[in-house]
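Quick one, T. Sequence first:
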Amino acid sequence: MTAFLSIIKLTCRSAIRSNVFRTLLFLLILSVLLIPNTIKGDGTAMGFIQLILEYSLGFVAIILSISAAWCACSEIASDVETGQLHLIAVKPVSRVVILLGKCCGVLFIHGILLLISAVVVYFFVLFQFNKQEFPADEKQRVENEVLCGRRLYKPRRPDMDKLAEAELKRRMERASESERAQIAAKINGEQRREVFDGIKKEISGKLGEVAPREAIFWEYDAIPDALNTPFYLRYKVFPSDSSSLNENTTHGSWVLRLMIPKKQIQPGSNEKLTDQDYTEQMYPLQPEELITASNNEFGIQETVARQNGAPLEVLKNMPANVLEELTRPLVHNGTLKIGYYNFDRTNKTMKFQEADGPYLLVRETGFLNNYLRGLVVIFLGITAIALVASALAAVFTLPTAIFMTVSYGSLCICSTYLLKTFRDYTSKELSFFENLAQWMSHGVTYLLIPFQDFFLTSHLATGQLIEFGTIGSLILQNLILRGFPLFLLGTYLYWRKELALAMKR
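Structure tokens:
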């Protein structure tokens, strides 16, 4: 243990002496101190705080990731090339302990830097939020939508197998006798799975579409019983006939399902209402102009209260009893139902992509709790980068290890971007090379660690809760199943490396 701690201490000292590390440390200080003071945002409290959070923490995460990769590569690979490892290897210290000590030393010094930077950013955000003279309603909105942790609920996904069966049944009814025979031969033979997969793909592409003057509905399950919590809806809508990213406008109206009890229960009574004791009503919100291809969000209870003529004082700081009264009809047996009417003035069919919601956001915790979770995830990302860099530096020379670490990360980022592009903006049949690129991207993301998944600064900037399930999934799938096997392989090769040959080269 003494040798292990000594190696960690020596690694930290050696990293501080590195000119590259000092340069990155200088950039880190600039990003923490200058970025929050130079960003002005869009003039609103929301835009100002969101930009400070996303850009400051984003630059901190990027700089520390680059620094961790460099330190891991230089501390491990350069020891072999310069012969310093010979001085340690002749002592009763295992090479495995040496490699672990150096990797832990890199993580220790970068964990300290992350903690210091995060504390400065946190208090600076609160300082600027209280110092800036923003209107009271804007500050209240920031507290409700950014400086908090809101759990994200996805709409219930329909049973694709049942939909495919129903669609196949409709096609059989409309088909001629010869076409029915052909379809029956396919579904009763080896092509059954291929037929159903094709039908499911067609249905999936049309699930979020809503034609002009028609409506689409979503249901959300497992909504919390606490009725004095604000609900928010986040969505992004696209014209279905275009994959353009350019923002435009459309016209539509959201509609809420209200469950109204037919009778009132007397206080102190043990009687409970059943589903038959409720009447379902649809409550449409006022039609409005919406921006397409852009993230939009609104408070559900706040919008209902404003539509019912609530005074401004109530909207700014809604009392718990008013919030509970507005929420009770919305949630029934833990389920909330909401819909959208398409009133587009050019009669376009609109589309809600599955990757963009609409999502229901419900406040669950405060900002500090969510902020600490974000820091844990960022540190896990730095750990993943250090594991990969250490494994590569244990086998290759310093320039090769740095090149391969950069290539590793770039390959993951490009593959993830390609998959997102295919999923969101490709509605036609893919060519052979596009299919090949898609399958290769799937293979890369399956085998390698997607580093960008660890940097969830956008969650903090939008008040989205970083759930413990997400953190556990990142640890299991990326660190344990992908990172540690590579690190163990690098450790084994480092242990078996012939130092004399390395020195000779």
